[in-house]
Amino acid sequence: MTTSDIHNLLKKGEHLTLECKLCESRLPNSLWDTYSAFANSYGGYILLGIEEHRNEPDITKRFTIKGVDNPDKLITDLWNLANDPNKVSVNVLKDDDVQIISVEDKRIIVIHIPRADYHLRPVYINDNPAKGSFRRNHQGDYHCTKEEISSMYRDASDDGNDGRLLHHYSIVDLDAESLRAYRQVFEIRNPGHILNEYNDKDFLCRMGGYIIDRESGEEGLTVAGLLMFGQGLPIRELFDNIRMDYVDKTNLVGEMRYSDRLTYDFSWENNIYQFIKRVLPRITSDLPRPFVLEGMQRIDDTPLHKLIREALTNMVIHADFMTTGVLRAEKRDDGFYFSNPGIVKLPIETVYQGGISRARNPRIQNMLRMIGFGENLGTGFPTMVDVWKKKFHTLPKLEENLQVNITELTFSGMKSVGEVETKSSPKEKWPKKWPEKWPENAARILEAIIQDNKVSVQELENRLPIGHTTIKKILTAMQEEGVIRRVGPAKGGHWEVTKGQSTK
After folding, report:
1. Across 179-316, where does the E strand assignment appear?
2. Is the pTM of this model over 0.85?
3. Domain region containing 34
4. Distance in angstroms (rounded) separating the CA atoms of residues 273 and 180
5. Which of 30, 411, 462, 501 has the most CB atoms around its CB within 10 Å?
6. Is the model's pLDDT at 289 over the cut of 70?
7. How far apart are CA 435 and CA 387, in angstroms?
8. How do 140-143 and 134-137 pair as beta strands?
9. Res. 169: pLDDT tops 90
10. How many domains, the chain?
């Protein structure tokens, strides 16, 4: 920190990461409120020996350099208190975080408070986490709420938030169709895996969705198991604080607020698997993609499809489901937006660098990873940055908002989804006689059938941005081309993807 740095900081005035305090012969008591607030928020600088005139509108006159008397003694007092567990729960300072700088021939003390590691939060003072935990907003330091303190304590554990045994919640609280559809996709992606032979209970035990307490003998669903595959009512009984929402804000005209929306309306079980299964085809519906079917495995990924899948996954695995909030995905004319309750556990710069992953919901993360969603090595976010930057020459923006306790991820700079190009058009993979939009829509329908081979035409219409008549025509054409066949009657039967069939 230099004199020039100090003047540049003061030009911006006090804000989220800067606090000035008049200090002459002793450390102000309020210093420790700010110490806690910065450590629990974004980090920041405390400048001792500068007086702020809060009512002065002219920023150039708002601060007066007063200096401090005997700064060496004050620094000694600072270190003594920072290392006193009765005063501060943990010392987050290093030697070079404290400096004496001469400004306008007066000496001031500059204290850099780093953001505390998530293992150490909440950082509190006076041996009282309930009354001594602070955070920072634009108005200054404020006492943390009980919910914020609880959230920080939960985040301190590397075991995550989703492994807790839910008392009195069992297999009967699961949506059998959600678990069946997941296991079908699991088997397709992991042929020959030993878990394919397990019954549902043993399968969930291995995946972290069901637990047996060795001491008490009690058994039941975990948070991960219920949220991922549960019926709507049992989920809402425990997690009524969480909503799931998808909004399409593209091509709006006049007073339109959205062109498509998916929220819970009692027509689907509002678990995570069903939410992702419904959102993914909607949010990627305008992205062209090549289509190749090898056996029952669809090979049609593009970097942008992988990016959207990774972003959806991150939104879920980093969400704090114990607090109030919304899992929200938006499609916009210029890109995409995702948000989840809970701030980032790691510093944002660390997330951009990659190499480290600290999910709040590691069991859900593993469940999704096993069906092709997300990475667990910390490479997912840098890959998303690289893909978007190369394609649209802008950087995805990852932000956290402590005031409303959410994390936001925004992809912008895309003038229209029509600008997205692929090396191989889906139209080349399907019969020439098909109408122009059929190849893309056929890919969506086939994906839905692979995930749920009992899906009806009405259910396809509810899930996909395709009309009823078009769906029926495409299904008929796909059967004629030998891509799929119907086994059993219209009601009670199921679809079968022709093994060995390829659309190359």
Report:
1. 210-212, 219-221, 242-248, 260-263, 292-294, 297-299
2. no
3. 3-155
4. 11
5. 411
6. no
7. 31
8. antiparallel
9. yes
10. 4
